[in-house]
Amino acid sequence: MEIKKATTIHDIAKALNLNSSTISRALNNHPRVSQTTRDKVKAKASELNYQPNNLAANLRTNKSNTIGVVIPFLSRYFFSTAIAGIEDVAQAYGYNVIITQTKDITEKEKESINTLLKSRVEGILISPAMYNDDIEHIEKAINQQIPIFCFDRYAEGFQTTRVIMDDRKTALLMCNHLIQQGAKKITVLSGYKTASIYSNRQKGIIDSYIKHDIDLKHLNIKEMELDTHKAYCYVKDLVEKGNVPDAIYALNDMTAFGAIKALNETKLSVPKDVLVVGFSNEPLSELFTPSLTTVNQPAYEMGKLVAKKLILHLEDNEELLTSETSILKSELIIRESSLRRRKKV
To answer: Which PANTHER family match (predicted)?
Structure first.
């Protein structure tokens, strides 16, 4: 019995009078190939019963068409939304995505980087762990000619492309809002300032105090792991000791939820007695009682942009080191939790 030879990209190229690279890009939905050509190529591939041999192609070209993503938490709304943007762009360019999480632990971040290098990723997108001041594992990847681009957070000590938000300005604007609502004594529930986002947000809050000529002795910044239970315990203890603030500025929404629970249990009303604001616009923030004032971050757009920058960098064979920074705008979402209710006259 005669064994029929498998159809190759070259067979499709010959049938359509196109070059093989165009056929490859069309089959991988590359945006530089027109939709008309993509449809024509896919129709001919189906007609000729073409089956791609990805392993052989990768071995031949020494390309895996895979990028790695390293994030602190898969469960956080911000990061899951950013991943959606990353995956949409990667798929459009014919790339696969491997996602790892560090839980904000440096050792897990090192393991993630090593795993991705062993998986032959072509580039890595990373939002560094909060407590990380060791970048040796990142330098190791760069020394292997693997570009690493940062999003949301960034690590000091190495040059790279960054897609971030203006955390300092955003925090200043939110603090301005609290002061305009009459708050002077503000407690800030912040992540550790070893992470760029929390360092910058703390600076923005201090900027606001200085702008309004308020003594910094009225500002209480508590660095902590940002989760609901830890915030609940800290705020309840604070209030029980008589240190009731005018406002609580939680630097993520889940922490704000814990603060509100503690205030409710100590018979303090939000926003009448204490204003509360968050950061990240979790889906629950609008449904919570009272609805939570927060910051809407462009997570999906951030994921799309950083993925596109990395893939174009890989496609265009640019120099490895780059230090371009893109800053995306955020939006204050003002809701019930930070608005004083006026007494009826």
So the answer is: HTH-TYPE TRANSCRIPTIONAL REGULATOR GALS (PTHR30146:SF109), LACI-RELATED TRANSCRIPTIONAL REPRESSOR (PTHR30146)
Give, in order, the Cα–Cα distances in Å from 296 to each of 252, 257, 278.
11, 16, 10
- Residue 262 CB: number of other CB atoms within 10 A? 22
What's the CATH code of the domain at 29?
1.10.260.40
Q: Outline where DSSP puts E strands in 116-191.
A: 123-126, 148-151, 162-165, 186-190
Q: How far is CA 170 from CA 89, 294, 322, 323, in A?
A: 27, 11, 26, 23
pTM check: above 0.85: no
Run of H or E residues at 56: helix 54-61
pLDDT at 252: 94
Q: Which helix (H) or strand (E) holds 107?
A: helix 106-118
Q: Based on the structure, what is the number of domains in the chain?
A: 3
Query: What does the mean pLDDT of the chain come to?
Result: 89
Q: In whole angstroms, what is the distance from residue 196 CA to residue 187 CA?
A: 20
C-alpha–C-alpha distance, residues 4 and 13, integer Å: 19
Same structural domain for residues 286 and 307? no
167-180: average pLDDT: 97
Instruction: Check residue 279 and give its pLDDT.
Output: 95
Show the tokens assigned to 267: 């018979």
| 79-93 pLDDT tens trace | 999 999 999 999 999
